[in-house]
Design a protein that fits this description.
Helix 4 crosses helix 6 and helix 6 runs parallel beside helix 7. It is globular and about 50 Å long. The chain contains 9 helices and 9 strands. By secondary structure, the chain is α/β, with parallel strands linked by helices. It has a single domain, classed as Rossmann fold, CATH 3.40.50.300. The chain binds adenosine-5'-triphosphate. Adenosine-5'-triphosphate binds next to helix 1. It comes from Streptomyces lavendulae subsp. lavendulae.
Length: 219
């Protein structure tokens, strides 16, 4: 299970943007979270991905309570969650070639040996060939860069995926392609998915179940 229990979080403890949020994701489940712009979805998604420490509440991942860490969650737990954000250009180092961007989590976890081989599988999965892998972010389209960011999220083969408005900036065919990649990965690995967005139609089609912000958090 990936559980968020009573999460209060934000950027100023006096004015939290997420108040008392509860969410439980079963292994292998695809859960959609829908809410209006600015309600705090991305903040909660970052808490779920263990990238943002909540002011209050608990994250439980596979039975282990993850909150209480001082700055960042332990690496062994962070690598269990892959995350894709809405704006690939904000989450991609502009100096890196796409193949090195995809390899970032391998380097960050000290797995330098065999990194290029490990990149090949997710790169192929998202449809990036050698020509695109050799380019830097300014030399590719938003859709191609988001493909690389999805490959980066998959490279450590996480048990959970958090997709925060992953397709918001993309056209219909790229959206369909990226959703298909996530679904194929989930079929193969049994990974659970938290898909955050504001499009109930897309999330309704994609996910097993969709919850609305107002049902999981105080406003
Ligand atoms: N780094 C930050 N520092 C301060 N405030 C922030 C920061 N990031 C977000 N906020 C604020 O927190 C609130 C919630 O933002 P968040 O991005 O979590 O909402 P959201 O529901 O994902 O919105 P959207 O659907 O528009 O992306 C907003 O009022 C936003 O201005």
């Amino acid at each position: 299970m990936l559980e968020l229990q009573g999460i209060t979080a934000g950027y100023d403890p006096r004015r939290p943007v997420v108040r008392d949020a509860h969410l439980a994701l079963r292994p292998g489940e695809a859960l959609g979270l829908v809410g209006p712009s600015g309600c705090g979805k991305s903040t909660l998604a970052r808490v779920a991905a263990l990238l943002h420490r909540p002011d209050r509440g608990t994250v439980v991942l596979g039975g282990r309570t993850v909150t209480g860490f001082r700055h960042r969650a332990p690496r062994s737990l962070r690598t269990e969650v892959g995350v894709v954000f809405q704006q690939p250009r904000l989450s991609a180092d502009p100096r890196l070639r796409l193949r090195d961007l995809i390899a970032e989590p391998l380097r960050a976890t000290g797995r330098r040996r065999g990194a290029q081989e490990a990149v090949a599988e997710p790169a192929e999965r998202v449809g990036l060939g050698p020509d695109l892998l050799a380019r830097r972010p300014h030399e590719v389209s938003d859709g191609q860069l988001q493909r690389a960011c999805l490959a980066r999220a998959l490279v450590l083969r996480p048990r959970w995926l958090v997709c925060d408005e992953m397709t918001a900036m993309l056209d219909a065919s790229t959206t369909a392609a990226l959703v298909a990649v996530v679904e194929e990965y989930r079929r193969e690995t049994g990974a659970g998915l938290l898909a955050v967005g504001h499009d109930p139609v897309l999330l309704g089609r994609w996910c097993d179940r969709t919850v609305h912000w107002g049902d999981i958090a105080d406003s």
